[in-house]
Amino acid sequence: MIYALDTNTLIAGTALAHNAVLVTHHVDEFTRVPGLHATDWYASRAS
Predict the structure, then answer these.
(1) Residue 33 in contact with residue 12, Cβ under 8 Å?
(2) Which residues pair with 22 in a beta bridge?
(3) pTM of the model
(4) Distance between terminal CA atoms of the chain?
(5) Where are the alpha helices (DSSP H) in 1-47?
(6) What is the pLDDT of residues 2-26, one digit of tens each?
(7) Any idea what DSSP says for residue 25?
(8) How far is CA 17 from CA 2, 35, 43, in A?
(9) Do the Cβ atoms of 11 and 31 come closer than 8 Å?
(10) pLDDT-derived band of residue 47, with 50, 70 and 90 as boundaries?
């Protein structure tokens, strides 16, 4: 049986594994991942 991979989980796991900051416009999608630091550069430019 083949299971669909949640792309956001893969992205979050990669950022965590590399101790990186995740830059995304969809920060709310990643708030459920403990220890992950996500930022939205677009939102910081708009204000």
Answers:
(1) yes
(2) 38
(3) 0.75
(4) 47
(5) 7-17, 41-46
(6) 555 688 999 999 999 999 999 999 9
(7) S
(8) 25, 11, 25
(9) no
(10) low
Burial class, 26, CB count within 10 angstroms (exposed 0-12 / middle 13-18 / buried 19+)? exposed
Which residues partner with 39 through β-bridges?
Answer: 23
Q: Residue type at 7? A: T
Give the number of other CB atoms < 10 A from CB of residue 30: 18
Q: Residue 25 is encoded by which pair of tokens?
A: 């416009």
> How many angstroms separate the CA atoms of 39 and 26, rounded?
9
**Closest residue by Cα to residue 19 from 39, 33, 6, 37:** 37
- DSSP codes, 13-35: HHHHHTT-PEE-S-GGGGTTSTT
